[in-house]
Amino acid sequence: MKIVLPLVFFIHSFAVTAQKFNEFLQQCEANGFRGSVLVASKGKVLLEQGYGLADAEANRKETANTVFCIGSITKQFTAAGVMKLADENKLRVTDKLSKFFPESPAAMKDITVHQLLTHTAGLAPALGDDYDLVNASDFMKLVFSQPLQSTPGAQYHYSNVGYSILGIIIEKVSGMGYEQYLHTKLFQPAGMLRTGYLIPKFDKKELAVGYRDGIRWGTALDHAWMADGPGWHLRANGGILSTAGDMHTWYVALRNNKVLSKAATEQLLARQVAEDPQGTSYYGYGWVWQKTDNGEFNWHNGGNGVYNAFMGFSLKDDWCLMVSSNTNKIISDKIATQLLKILNGGEAAPLPQSIIRSEPPFMTSPVTLAIFQQIVNKGGEYFESNYDEVLRQAGFDFEDDMILFGVGEKLKAEMRWENARSLYTVYSKLFPNIVVAWNQLGRCYKQLGNNTKARECFEKSLSIRPVNNPAKQLLEEL
Prior knowledge:
The longest helix has 15 residues, at 160-174. This protein has an eight-stranded antiparallel sheet, sandwiched between helices. The chain is built from 18 helices and 14 strands. The protein has two domains: 1-355, DD-peptidase/beta-lactamase superfamily (Beta-lactamase), CATH 3.40.710; 366-477, Tetratricopeptide repeat domain (Serine Threonine Protein Phosphatase 5, Tetratricopeptide repeat). α2 (74-87) packs parallel to α6, α12 (366-378) crosses α14 and α13 (380-394) crosses α15 (417-430). The chain is an alpha+beta fold. It is 41% helix and 13% strand.
């Protein structure tokens, strides 16, 4: 998931001490920040450190070497892989989808690689849960069975689907698996030994544990992946694991044209399409491009409603910033914004507990309210039968389940238990590996007097996460 942000940073070339960064981050740590941070400028790493706990239950601290999920920052690796193939004259960004998939339906056959890279292909944001074990063939069949949201090339629609397709194209053209290609062509030449899905052979004890609203979600490796990595609802658009140091190494490789030609790097980072009507930011190839009065820079963020990350840099002014967070209550972008103020020579605004731990606006968002009203007005049975249409019309992001959590909380607050049951039935269908959905569905069944169904839901939840799961107590209460 990428969040569009009104970022305006002013970077100047003067020395900044690590002490100022560290003092601010220690304050954030005292207020609950958990994550890894790297700040570099003018060829020097000014700060590279972990804060808080990577695993609260094990009392394991975050360090500079803690492995975290970079979320949608993965997309720029996919884009770089495409540009590497272009460097090798194995494809062009003007190539059409039908070149790689002759079975493409008429409406999609002329979609170009450029349109996939810039989210202008007209594809849906997502078509399934990150942890559905769907292979490339079945994924493409699903893509081809869906209608386009707009005519290819006409509009910007952020799409994980498009980047997964690019990953499959990389496999087709290179003859290598997606991760193997990135490892061989990008990561190894750049000197990145701690980046990938499975090839680095991460020990789970090296990974940051994710927390959703204080509840242990686990690491990426605690959730269902196939033998060679995540299913294609996630692969190539998100989910890559890395460290702050490795991501800085990647920045250095881009800056020095160590992996891509200068022309390919410039194309990767150039502005391509406006992300909004006001033109406050532009999407390039896997990177957002922005310009201020004092220069231009690139950035991207990502997350899955649990962990999140931010990376930003300027090749011209030579600065790089990487921030990770392993809880949805403390967003990396908030930390990054203040660190960049310090990098500019200014003062970071204090982030008190009431702000730094503020919940995402999933309870009051227009999307939440639209879905809530549809369920209340038309009933739960209608919602269960027409959820895809209802959610799409409301503007639901099928990659982020927190809106559904917000709708459910509103329904429970009004004791609309049958409507809430319908909501959580759909929630558990769209996000079958999220224990919150099953626990809340079980609670609804319990309120409706159906303890048998409630027990089934709690047992399903425990099968997904056997430890640190409220379902154990909920079962005992039955």
